[in-house]
Each structure stands twice: as structure tokens, then as C-alpha cells.
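Researcher: I need the complex structure. Ligand is NAP. Inputs:
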Amino acid sequence: MKILITGANGMLGRDISEVLKNHELLLSDKEDLDITNPEQIETTLQEFTPEIIVNCAGYIDVEKAEDQEDLANKINADGVLNLARACKNSSCVLLHISTEYVFDGENINGYDENAITNPINIYGKSKALGEKLLQENLDKFYLVRSSWLYGKNPQLGKERGMNFVETMLKLAKERDELNLITDQISKPTYTKDLSFAIKQLIEENYPHGVYHLVNESPITPFDFAKEIFSIKHINTKLNPISYTQYPTKSKRPLNAILNNIKFPKLRSYKEALKDYLDS
Ligand SMILES: NC(=O)c1ccc[n+]([C@@H]2O[C@H](COP(=O)([O-])OP(=O)(O)OC[C@H]3O[C@@H](n4cnc5c(N)ncnc54)[C@H](OP(=O)(O)O)[C@@H]3O)[C@@H](O)[C@H]2O)c1
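Model: Output:
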């Protein structure tokens, strides 16, 4: 299959590029294919004629988005619309990645694939708008939501170039104790597992639509850090705190739990985390 991957230098983009390498791939990132540039997208599609675009490009800085709403919308909403329109013109499928942040996190039972979105911060709003524009402008799409991603290729050297796992390992070397939140919950997901699930979705021709692809089951940052330190035999003391003691500019969804009821369940976060830390 001919597959165009956008945002291919990102944390998820790199794993997806590796996992899909049995296909004919065109790997692109902002420098060669900026998804906010419709002409550039058209030209690329005419030249490469992909059957699927996997859109891993995105604006993902939740805190900065509070001050950069226009930029977040330009990439996460307008960029997706540009891709959707181009796909419609060339009968190409668009697989787009979204997030648990499109939900408000008020529902302690979590959110099924068909739940109504209600984002509570700028990043979530820009992603929800992207989802809406995708669904309104294209029939042949996969909308894949996932959460709390960690992968082997965080963008090291960039300001946000650390995933949660690497941040915990780094802080454990620098401090004797760490404060971690106990009243926020989500499903941390290994980008390798997400990439293999996406490969299965595409290769086994699952029906187009919305999918929640996440490792199971939900966990708090406190317990996830505890698990990381247990696997790595680290003794740093962990202090439980409430999210109210860790003020952020952006509001965060508290029960950001994606329920996967349409696709075979991915493995547990414990297995995925051990695999990540051992490899
Ligand atoms: N990270 C998470 O916890 C998480 C959770 C759920 C869903 N997601 C979603 O998963 C997707 C991938 O996230 P990630 O963690 O892999 O992010 P990432 O590492 O920041 O990768 C995103 C890539 O997109 C590129 N990009 C930015 N603007 C672009 C543009 N206009 N045109 C083309 N490429 C552009 C970025 O380049 P620059 O770095 O140069 O800007 C980067 O290489 C995003 O849609 C995100 O919303 C992420």
C-alpha cells in the first residue's frame, strides 16, 4: 500500500514509520510537507498518489496552547481540514490521531468512541475542531484517539522533548522525593503498541470511523510513576498530591479514560511499560 505519513519525525510518527515499513512509504514532516499549506499537500498527493495518509503532525503543547490558540487551531484544525479536502479530491483515506483531551473528564466511567466531545482547554478545543472538520468533510477516515503517549523517540533537544517515563527517570536522579498526582486518571499508551494497532486497523480493513486505541487500564500519574520505579528498582520517595496542588495554566480533564469497545483490547500498561523500559 502507498502510505504518506505526516509528522513522521515526531514521537509517534517515528514508531509508525518503523512499524509500517513493509509498505511503500513517503515520510514527511513540517520542513517538506507543512499540513497548513494546502498547495503543498495537493502537489504531494499528485506526485505520490497515496492510498492512505497517516497524520501524526500536530501541535501538542497543552500549556503553551493557552497563549497560542491561533497556532494550535491552524495546525490541529485547519491542517486536518486541508488533509481531509485533499483526500476527498484524490479518493484517499485519512487516518488522523486525536486525544482524550477532546473530553471534559467529568465522567468517571470514561468515554466510548461515540461519546460527545466537550474540551476544557485550548489544545483540546483545537483537536476537537479538527475532529469535527474531518468528520464533516470526509467519509473515508479513521479517527484514532489515544492518551498519555510515551515512546522511544521523544523529541530530545526540543523544549518538550521528554515523555512522562523519561521525565520520571531523570527526576529520580536529581531529587530524593517527588510529588505526583493521585486524582487524575488516564490510560498511558506506548507508541509502539499504538502503531501496531494502527497497522492492524489499516491492513485488516476495519470499517472507517472512530477508534480508541489505548493500553489498559486507567492509572494515576502517582501509580504510574510507582510502577516505573518498581520495574527500575528506584527508591525515590513518592508523595501523593491533588491536581489542585500542581497548578497549570490549562485545565486538565480528570477522568480522561478512553473506553475501547470497537477493537481488540491492547495489552496492559504494565506489560507495555516493562517492554519499553527493558528495550
Ligand atoms: N503526546 C501525547 O501524549 C499524545 C496523546 C494523545 C494524542 N496525541 C496526538 O498524537 C499526535 C502525535 O503526537 P506526538 O506526541 O508524536 O507529537 P510530536 O512528537 O510533537 O510530533 C508531531 C510532529 O508534527 C510536526 N508538525 C508540527 N506542525 C506541523 C505542520 N504544520 N506540518 C507538518 N508537521 C508538523 C512536529 O514538528 P515540530 O516538532 O518541528 O513542530 C512533530 O515532528 C498528535 O496529533 C497529538 O495530538 C499525543
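Model: Summary of the prediction. Residues 69-89 form the longest helix (21 residues).
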